[in-house]
Every structure is written in structure tokens, then in C-alpha cells.
Design goal:
With 259 residues, the chain is an all-alpha fold. Helices cover 61% and strands 2% of the residues.
């Protein structure tokens, strides 16, 4: 049964990210095919009512002038979403959807309205990366801490994307995603996989007083010392006992004198 569950986890961790990547590429090719439709207008335009729809549609749309944008996003979203599903299966869907929505809302609220549209799934990538990293640190559970180190090692350079260093790069979306992931890591810190608890921790939560082994050991040592002392006293008392000996000697009359 355990092997079946593990196989199911791996299957979900592979299938769902691949389906998402497939949808991203289908939309990308559709953007090329239907040249008369401006897909980029489905992105987020900050602080505008028309731009609100981008909260839902922005991650699906990528720059159609080249492959760099979608290629750079495909592998990270696949790896990070797969890790989220495998290690945080219980809360994976909620974390993913909330990361998607909170990132978009944060971008719509805080980004400057300079008549530009924000597109791409990179904000969600930043959200998943920060969630996996911070969540693993908070839970103090070795497998999740390993994921934190993996994210830091492989995607640590993402941190530079939250600064306005490159033109035409939505650093506000990256920053919104990173903040969203950190917030969700704290919100869900007590849900999903947890570090195994020791027996004394469980007993403490249940209000069960653990046995006082140290006190019992000291009590046994005290009783043993008292028994040794009692034996010594008995030996001393026996050594002080007076022994009376009677010696009988017959006299000349055949009687016995007693000393």
C-alpha cells in the first residue's frame, strides 16, 4: 500500500506540472496563430478595472516575439510545482491557487500604472520558490529542509529579479510573488507535513505527566543506601553482644563448682 501511495504521489507530481506547461505552450502557439488578437491585453494593467482580468489570465500569456520568455519559465514552474505537489500534497492546490491570485492582486495594487501590461507566470514561480524555501525552514523537518536548500541552490539567483534592474521585466510581479509565497508559508505552517514529534512532546500536548525516571532512580539509590546503613548497624550491634560462659568443675565430694 505504501508503494502504491508513493507511486501516486510521483504520478501527480509529474502529470499536473506537465499539463500546466502544455497549456502554457498551447496558449503561446495560439497567440502566434491568431495574429489579430492581442493576447497581451489579457495581462494585468495595474490600477485599472480592465486590468483585473489579468489576475487570472496573466500567467498563461508569454511574449510571442521570441521563445526565451516561455522557455525560461517552463522548467522552473514544472520543478517547483512538482515539488509542491509531492511534498505538500495535502495543501498543494490551496497554496498554488492562492499564490496565483495573491501575486496578481499584489501586482495590480502596488505596480505603477504606466500603461503597460504584465504577462507571464514568473510571479507564480517566485511565489512557489519562496513558499518552498521558507516553509521548509519553519517546519524544521529534514526532507523539507533539503527542498529549501535545493531551491536556494538552484533558484537563489531569482532574488535579483525583484529589483528594477532590467527593462521590460516585471520586477513588481516577481516581488509580489515572493511576498505571497512567504506569507502563505507562515499561514500554512501548521498544515501539511510536520516534523515527527517525540513521545514526551505528545504527552505534553495531551496534558499527560511523563514518568519521573530521575526521581525514581534517586529514590532507589536512597533506599539502597539506607539498607546498607541498616546492615552496618546490625553488624555493629552484634559485635557488642556479651557472651557468658559457665564452666563446671567437680570437687572432691563429687559436687560441681560453678564459676
Amino acid at each position: 500500500m505504501k508503494k502504491t501511495n508513493q507511486f501516486g504521489y510521483w504520478t501527480e507530481a509529474l502529470v499536473y506540472p506537465l499539463l500546466l506547461i502544455a497549456v502554457l505552450w498551447i496558449v503561446f502557439w495560439a497567440d502566434h496563430l491568431f495574429d489579430l488578437v492581442d493576447f497581451y491585453k489579457m495581462g494585468i494593467k495595474p490600477k485599472t478595472m480592465s486590468g483585473l482580468k489579468g489576475i487570472i489570465f496573466m500567467p498563461f500569456i508569454h511574449d510571442k516575439t521570441g521563445y526565451e520568455h516561455i522557455v525560461n519559465n517552463s522548467l522552473p514552474i514544472g520543478v517547483l510545482l512538482g515539488a509542491l505537489i509531492y511534498y505538500y500534497r495535502e495543501i498543494a492546490l490551496k497554496v498554488f491557487v492562492l499564490t496565483w491570485v495573491v501575486t496578481g492582486v499584489g501586482l495590480w495594487v502596488f505596480a505603477a500604472n504606466n500603461n503597460s501590461f504584465h504577462i507571464g507566470i514568473s510571479g507564480v514561480i517566485y511565489g512557489l520558490a519562496s513558499f518552498l524555501f521558507v516553509s521548509g525552514v519553519l517546519r524544521k523537518y529534514l526532507p523539507l529542509q533539503a527542498i529549501s536548500l535545493f531551491v536556494a541552490f538552484v533558484y537563489g539567483s531569482l532574488i535579483w529579479g525583484i529589483f528594477p534592474m532590467k527593462a521590460h521585466v516585471s520586477w513588481e510581479g516577481h516581488l509580489s510573488g515572493m511576498v505571497a509565497g512567504i506569507i502563505l508559508a507562515f499561514v500554512f505552517r501548521k498544515r501539511g507535513p510536520q516534523s515527527p514529534k517525540y513521545l514526551y512532546e505528545i504527552e505534553k500536548e495531551l496534558g499527560i505527566e511523563p514518568p519521573d525516571f530521575e526521581g525514581e532512580l534517586k529514590e532507589r539509590e536512597r533506599l539502597y543506601a539506607e539498607s546498607l546503613l541498616q546492615n552496618e548497624r546490625e553488624q555493629i550491634d552484634h559485635s557488642k553482644e556479651i557472651t557468658i560462659k559457665y564452666i563446671y568443675k567437680p570437687n572432691s565430694k563429687g559436687e560441681t563448682d560453678r564459676e
